[in-house]
Design goal:
2 strands, 2 domains, 11 helices, 65% helix, mainly alpha, Arc Repressor Mutant, subunit A, Four Helix Bundle (Hemerythrin (Met), subunit A), 4% strand
Amino acid sequence: MAKVQRQTIPELVSQEIQNYIEEKELQEGDKLPSVEAMTHMFGVGRSSLREALRYLEAIDVISVHNGKGIYVRDVGTYRFAGKIKIEKEKRFLLAILDVRRALEGKAVELAAKRITPAQTAELAACMKEYSRLKDAGEHTAHIDLAFHRGIMKAAGNPILFSVLESIAAMYEKFFNEPLGDKRLFDDTYEYHHTMFAAIAVHEPARALDEFNKMMDCIENIIRTY
C-alpha cells in the first residue's frame, strides 16, 4: 500500500523557488526565470515545475501571466525559508476543500453505485489497518490517503480519477500534517467507517451524506485553527 511522502517533488520545488526569491531579494512585480530555465535550475520535469507554480500561485506567492512570464506577487507577508504563513495555508486548504467536495463527493456517489466485491474487500482491509494504526497510536496519514484513493478507483470513472490525480500534490496537503494539526485525522476517523458502510451496501445518498459530514468537520477545524 502506497505511503504518503513527507514532501512531494512539486512541494520541494515550490520551496526552492521561494528560496530563490529570497536569495535574489526579488520584490513584488519582479520577473522569475522562464519555465524552461527553472526546469534546468532545479533539475525537474516540466510537469513537476508547473504543479509547484500552480501551488505558489494558489497561495499568492507568484502570478503567472501566459505569454508574458512569471512574476513575484507577495514578499512582504512570507518568510520564504520557513513554513507558509498559517492564514494563507488555511485559505489554500479551504480552496482545495471546495474542490474535494465537488470531485471526491461525486466519486463517493459513483463508488456506492459501482463498487465491486473485490474493491469492497480492499477498502475493508484498509479500514481494518486504519483501526489498528489508530489504536496503536501510530500515524494514520498514509492509510487515510489510501482509503480515499480506493474510493476514487471504485468510482470507475478514469477521467474523474485522472482529474483528481492531476492535483495530487495539492490534494495531499490534507495528508501531510496540514497546519501541523493531527485533529484532521482524529476527528474525521468515525466518518471513514460510516461512509464505507454506506458504500459497501450501495447507498449513494447516505455515503455522500457521511462524506459531507467529514468535509464539514475538516472545514470547521481549519476555520477555527
